[in-house]
C-alpha cells in the first residue's frame, strides 16, 4: 500500500490524531474535540470540530465520510458526504453531522464521528465546444434504467 505524508497540527489539548482502526482500513477515524457534549435531536444538524488542521500535499484531497456504525446504530450521517478538504486549506477540520434517527444522540469529546480518506485528485482542463459526442444513454438521468 502506498503512503503519502500529511502534516497534522493539534489545535487543542483534547484533540486526537486520526487513526486507522484496522491494518487495511481505507479511512482514518476522526474524533470530536468538544468543550461540552453536544446533543443532536432527530432531524438536527451541527458542526462538530475535530481540533486538528492538516497540510495535505498538492495533488491530493481529504474526503470526510460517514461512519457506517454510527449510521446503522444511531442514524448519524454527514450532510455534505463526502466533504472535501482541499490541499490548500489549513483551518480546523470540522464535520457537518445530521441525526436521521428517531432519538436524540449525544456527541462527546473523543467520540469517533467520521472517516478521513486521503486520495489523489486531478484538475480538469475544460474545452468549450458547440456539440458533444453522442452515446447510447444520451440525457437519460435518474432512474433511466428502471
From TrEMBL:
According to UniProt, this protein's pathway is:
Pyrimidine metabolism; dUMP biosynthesis; dUMP from dCTP (dUTP route): step 2/2
Annotated residues that bind substrate are located at 67-69, 80, 84-86
Looking up Gene3D superfamilies in the UniProt record yields: 2.70.40.10
The reactions it catalyses are:
dUTP + H2O = dUMP + diphosphate + H(+)
This protein's cofactor list reads: Mg(2+)
Write down the EC number: 3.6.1.23
**In this protein, which residues make up the domain named dUTPase-like?**
15-146
| Biological-process GO terms, alphabetical | dUMP biosynthetic process; dUTP catabolic process
Q: Where are the transmembrane segments?
A: none
> By its UniProt entry, which Pfam families does this protein fall under?
dUTPase
Q: Report the superkingdom from the record.
A: Bacteria
Tell me the InterPro entries matching this sequence.
dUTPase, dUTPase-like, dUTPase-like_sf, dUTPase_trimeric
Which keywords accompany this UniProt record?
A: Hydrolase, Magnesium, Metal-binding, Nucleotide metabolism
Named from the GO MF annotations, one term is: dUTP diphosphatase activity
Family of this protein: Belongs to the dUTPase family.
What exactly does this protein do? Answer: This enzyme is involved in nucleotide metabolism: it produces dUMP, the immediate precursor of thymidine nucleotides and it decreases the intracellular concentration of dUTP so that uracil cannot be incorporated into DNA.
Record's protein name? Deoxyuridine 5'-triphosphate nucleotidohydrolase
What is the originating organism of this protein?
A: Syntrophotalea acetylenivorans
Q: Which gene encodes it?
A: dut
